[in-house]
Every structure is written in C-alpha cells, then in structure tokens.
C-alpha cells in the first residue's frame, strides 16, 4: 500500500482502495474478538549513512564536532515491532528487507512472545482435567474458583484442547462436564487458534484437533451438538478451505447417511459452517465462498427437495413424530440454501438453479401454509412449521435486499402471492401474524426500493423509529400504507376521499362493521395528512363533521371519539386555522372528563401536539 501510494496515478486506484479495505477489515475483525489480545505494529525504515555536512551541531557555547560513520554511504534498514508496552524487537542490517528477512524477523518475534511450554500428555492429563471440569460445575464457590483458575492456567498448555476434545466426545460422562469442555474449547479457538496469537496452538495440534472434530456426528444432546457445530464453524472461518480442505467433502458425505441422528448433526454443522463462511467480507474470502457455492448448490437443492418431500408425505399420512424429524432437516437445509443463494453468486439471475429455487419457494410456501390448516394449532409440528414458513419469506426478503435487479422477474409473483394471502380470503385459516408482517415487509421493500425508481425520483429519506415497525403487525401495516400512498397518491387519493364522503354523519353504534370502517378511514386520513394537504379542507370538515362526532357521548362511540381527536392531532401542524383553536380547546376540556382512559390520553396527546406546533 505504501509503495502504491507513492505513485500518483495509483494513489486512489481501485486496487489500492481494496488493499486499504482489506487491511481495515482485518484490524476490525481482530479488535472485535471479545478475548484478551494485543495488536503489534511492525514496520521497517531505511536510511543512508552518507555524511556530506561540513558543519557539526552541538549545545550552544560548546565545541561542535562531526562524527563520520564507519559504514559511510551504506544503506541501512531497521525493522521494529512496537506494542503498547514499547519496542518488542528491533533489528538493523545493511541493505533492504525482503520477504525472507521479514519472515525471519517474525519468527524471532514469535519466539520472544511465546515462551517454551511443556506438552500436556493426553492420557495422564485426562483424569486431572476431568476432575477440574467437574469441580468447575460445582455450586460451591470454594470448589468452583480454584478449578476455574486451574483451567485458566491450562488454557495455554499444548495438549489441553486435545484433552477437552476427548472429554466432550465421551458420551458416558456427565452432560454438564461435557458442556463446559465444549465451551472452553470454543473460547480457546478465539484466543489461541490464529498463528500470530500469543500462546498460539501448534500446527500439529491444530491438525489433530481438526481431524478429531469431524470423526463422528452422533452427539445425542441437542445443546452440545449445537455448540460443537458452532466451534467447528469457528475453526472453518480461520482454516477452511486452505488448511482444512477435507471439511466440506466430509460434511457432504455425512448428510447422505441413513442414520437419522448422524444425518441431522452433519446437516447442523453444514449449516453453521456455511453461515460462518458467508459472513466473511474480505474480497478473497467472498470469492472462495462463491466458488464453494457454485460447486455445492445443486447438491444443496436436491437435499432440500428430498427432505421437504419426505416431510409432506409424512405429515399427510399422520406420522407426526417422523414428520417433525424430517421438518427439522428441511429447516436446516433451507437455511443452508438461503446463505448460498444470497451470498454465493455475483449474478444469480444467470444461474438457472438459483432462479429455479426462488420460483420453487412460492410453491413450497403454498404447500406449507396448507399444512398449517391441516395440522392445527396444537400439533407437534406447528411451531417448526411456522418457523419454516417465515424462513421462506426471509429468503425472498434477503434476496431482494442484496440483489434487487435479479429480483425483478420475481416482483409480480411476489406481489400477487403477498396480496392474495394477506388481503383476500385465500389466507383465512392458514396465515398467522408474523407471516402477515413478513408479507407486508416484502411489499414495502418492492415499493420503496430505490433500484426500481428513476434516478431523478430517488429520495434520501430516513425512517423514523428505527426498524421496530418490521416486527409488529399494526406499525408494519401503517408504514406499508404510507409508502404505497406516497408512491401512488394520484390514484389512491380519490378513492380515500370517496370513502370519507360515504362515511359522513354519525355512525350507527349498533353496527360494529361501520364503526371499524370509519375508524380505519379516519386513521388513513391522519397518516396521509401531508399527502392530502391540497385535497382536504380540514377546517370545514372539523366544523361540519368531526366536532359533532366528538360530542356523541354513547359508550360504544368511544372508539370514534378517540380516533377523531387523534386525527385532529395529526392535522394540527399541517392545516388548521388559529381561529378554530378556541373551539378545539373547549372540546379538549370536555374530553379530558371522558370516562374512557384511552380517550383522555389521546386528548392530552393532541393538546401537546397543538402546543408544540404553536411554538
């Protein structure tokens, strides 16, 4: 980077920017590790021993002397490693530093940082480590604290993690002890797996550990199986595929076995490895993941289709327990496909398998929604079934977010699907709240996506309130309405005004449908106040219609009273004459005595908005 920076036309080149980006990302990745670590700055600097000055320098009043170096004219290079503790190592030599000399310097630095340690013998140490882990699970602090301190001292000893591996792979031991062994192993990966880390594990021990981690996928305890899958993924993030090329082939073979438990554990590990590799953001890592995705995508699709078909067959025959097991594998294989589809291809629209999978998502969604109707709310599979349906929608949402242009062929089908299940009778009895929210998010992302707008219409608008609206039905619906109304106001304004006109006059308190309709229409007019500024004479509407509705004191009319006073609060800062404020204050004083708490709170909120708008 430094050499490129000295070349004018390379100073802001794409290559140099990519090198800067990789450097910063690497430092941020190191700093993000929640483990004790220290960053060491290594640099070299050259200087020449030529002595051309004829005048020396010295303290005022003293004689100046000139010292000529013995190696006059020689080029000297100094390489130094510096940390927060000062200079760790420095070396000087004649001539420039090259790769071989820099590697020798780093080896000397490594020897200085990492002291000689004795190798922990696995056979003799297993019983000692097992005893310490057992004591570390105790509730007695007098037993717990010394055990934790002993384990902390062993963390840097060669062979310690091999002992932990043998302990958590032993299914006959206590579950809590095995769980703790997995956690110590997982934390050790963050601290000591990297080659440049203080007290780093040797390459021989790491090779042995990698081989031991994938020898079996038959862990009977779900929680421990998940932690083992996570720690394998952590190792894969650092070593796969360069130092661990056999990992992916072994996982692909393991998910094909007939044993149900082994197949599930291998698939669980496959998912966590894929998820971790997909999260890497350096350009070289992304290219490696794209190569991996293109090589295994076809197999992942076949695996997902197989487990999905098996589940559907079992659920329709009434075999709930077998169906639940197949559904878990369906969910895991779909999670793998989600990561591969979203992060594994630069131009996914040119890959027939990717587009085929995305089109198949809609058909599978319909099948799974019909399963919800069949199994009912009390079924064993219901919770996992809803999770799978939500995951289908996440596939579409993620693909739309990361690949808006390749998503264009799917826009019409996405909108038709979402509108059909959310706003028509097709969704009755099968949809649930979170699914409706996801469908509305899909519609909103399509409507609001800047990639689908002409350049002149792109607006830099910041959503208020963060992303909380994405997860609740009512806020999500309101945000979707606002986006649609904003983008298609010319079409929708006459429709909304006609609905307002049809609801003139007090509503029949005995007709709940009419009451709810008026509440919804008034809510829409309040949300779209700024869009309707030129189309609604709010002052006349307030005097002729809204004021009368606020004076209806029937208990069932509290819904409309609350909505009308809220509506006035929305329009106060938009279009409301000062001459009408005394009339409004009279109504507010009256409503503050309303027996309904919600009406009183909404009235106070409107008063606050009026005061703020007056300022």
Automatic annotation (TrEMBL):
Keywords: Nucleus, Transport. Gene3D superfamilies: Leucine-rich Repeat Variant. InterPro entries: ARM-like (IPR011989), ARM-type_fold (IPR016024), Importin-beta_N (IPR001494), Tc1-like_DDE_dom (IPR038717). This is Importin-11. One of its GO terms (molecular function) is small GTPase binding. One of its GO terms (biological process) is protein import into nucleus. Residues 147-219 form the Importin N-terminal domain. GO terms for cellular component: cytosol; nuclear envelope. Pfam families: DDE_3, IBN_N. Its main location: nucleus. Transmembrane segments: none annotated. It is found in: Nucleus. It comes from Labeo rohita.
